[in-house]
TrEMBL record:
Pfam families: S-methyl_trans (PF02574)
Domain Hcy-binding: 4-296
Keyword flag 4Fe-4S: no
Keyword annotations from UniProtKB, A to Z: Metal-binding, Methyltransferase, Transferase, Zinc
Superkingdom, taxonomy of origin: Bacteria
Name of the protein described by the UniProt record: Homocysteine S-methyltransferase
E.C. designation(s): 2.1.1.10
Amino acid sequence: MRPVRPLATALAEEPLVLDGGLSNQLRAQGCDLSDALWSARLLVEGPQQIEAAHAAYVRAGAQVLITSSYQATYEGFARRGIARAEASGLLARSVDLARRAGDAVDREVWVAASVGPYGAMLADGSEYRGRYGLSVADLERFHRPRIETLAAAAPDVLALETVPDEDEARALLAAAEGCGVPVWLSYSVEADGERTRAGQPLAEAFAVAAGNDQVVAVGVNCCEPAAVDHAIAVAAAVTGKPVVVYPNSGERWDATARAWRGDATFDPSRVTAWRAAGARLVGGCCRVGPEAIARL
């Protein structure tokens, strides 16, 4: 394992480039992701494909790799007959695969362990709505075991990502408290960049991270590129923390046809304005591949 600076230290010194969408790169490698576990299935059946996808982003210049644990949960694995002990090993494997890809190059590469929202486990699109009918305490109980396992695998940061509402953000931050690993908090937002997917004003949503020293960055992901501009300004103003942004390509998912629609609007030249507004971690999410990250 190659030593790297603490992420907070690095962010104070320079902006960093994130990777892009893991699922689109896995599909480009010929992987079938038509499964409720999505990319997490390959932690069981094709870990070499996950490492290869991470390596593609490292070659493109990514400095931060997000692990394949977004949809990896104890509950999801249990539905596939995977016992808890094995599931813990698979979660740890997600960190190890990203670490190995980063260690293959002679420069600093940080590993962000992905902690997706509760709705990702349901695999029904509810991560883009939030408000699952669960209390903050219920959500904290769901997230805590996975966070503890991922933290024990020693990533550089936990990516609490694609969070659809403020309640789940509170639960995630509570579950991560005391785990010994810094976190970033990233919301999924509406197209105007002014509200969470659950409809809360972003200023209120980001306020849950203000004053929390464990949070090294706040921002947005899995949203339209145009939504980022407003979100950066709000995140920086409310929290005073570095901002993380990694939007989708701009295409939209048609759940009925199970296909992407529209044109890609992800433009790496936006990075100049994003950096000026406070973004220190910039990358891509769904449908943003290594070529776009190289340009970024």
